Amino acid sequence: MKQDRFHYCLHQLKQFDHDRYLAVLLTPEAVRGPLVAYFAFDAEMMRIPTTVSEPMLADIRFQWWRETLETMTPLSNPGHEIAAALAETCFDHGVAPADLVSLIDLRARDLAEQPFVTLEELVDFHCKVAVRHLEFSSRITDESLNEEISKIAAIHLTVFGLINQLRRIPQDAASSQLALPLDLLGRHDIDPHALFQGASSLGLHLALEEILNHADRLMSAAGDLDLRSNARLVPAMLPTILRSLYIGKFRSPGFDLFHHSSDVPAFRRQLRYLRVRWSKQFQA
Q1: Cβ neighbours around 22 below 10 Å, total
Q2: Euclidean distance between CA atoms 156 and 243, whole angstroms
Q3: Domain residue spans in the chain?
Q4: Between the CA atoms of 58, 64, 70 and 76, what dihedral angle is there, to the nearest 10 degrees?
Q5: Distance (Å, rounded) from C-alpha 64 to C-alpha 105?
Q6: What's the sign of the alpha-carbon dihedral 107, 108, 111, 116?
Q7: pTM, whole model, 2 decimals?
Q8: What is the pLDDT of residues 53-107, one digit of tens each?
Q9: CATH code for 114-284?
Q10: What is the pLDDT of residues 36-50, one digit of tens each?
Q11: 85 CB-side CA count, 13 A
């Protein structure tokens, strides 16, 4: 990949998906470029609903990306640095750009006026995203996972997606997007309008704890993930090991999602990355 495109994608990750940014710094050079392009693309898709003034504008952007990917060739010059990076890397690393349209369709779910009805629907959504991430990352790194490892890895990704959605609640609320499912709102007497105004409540705390408990159960059922036989996939999975650090922030005494940061210092994340990169084992 051309260096200016690589650095553009890397800069986008540093700004908008710092966990993946730190992970790709530990990625083998042979697959670093395509992974940076893919991660930057996904970060861009997640940002679109929160960077426009009305849903129609987001629809237009998503449609541009669909058409661009569906017609992309190795010689395409789409006029967008991330799209150009995909054109330059995807074809040589087992991913057809048109296949990424399925991920766009999932990310566009954030534009839906109707929020998730149940917690199970929310988990199912993140499971679908996780399966796509695992598929694309496996193709890029040329790793073939057996069925058991694939299932465990998908659950680790699913839970990390859930945690990230909880961390984004303040940003989503500022854009009048309802990130919590309706059954939790009703069960814990949460007023959506209060969320949009950035107001915390006991109900919100209980709803978050219910989701965290569900995540704990998923991880207990999945168990540890051993990637010693699939070492090239380790960097793509590294962010999932930060799950417990973020959960610890949520469960710290007096934590208020709207007034306290859920960020974890970079050095703590890097230390955890290095430990798992050496062992290639991800603990549930």
Answers
A1: 20
A2: 9
A3: 1-112, 114-284
A4: -140
A5: 12
A6: negative
A7: 0.95
A8: 788 888 999 999 999 999 999 888 898 999 999 999 988 888 899 999 999 999 9
A9: 1.10.600.10
A10: 999 999 999 999 988
A11: 25
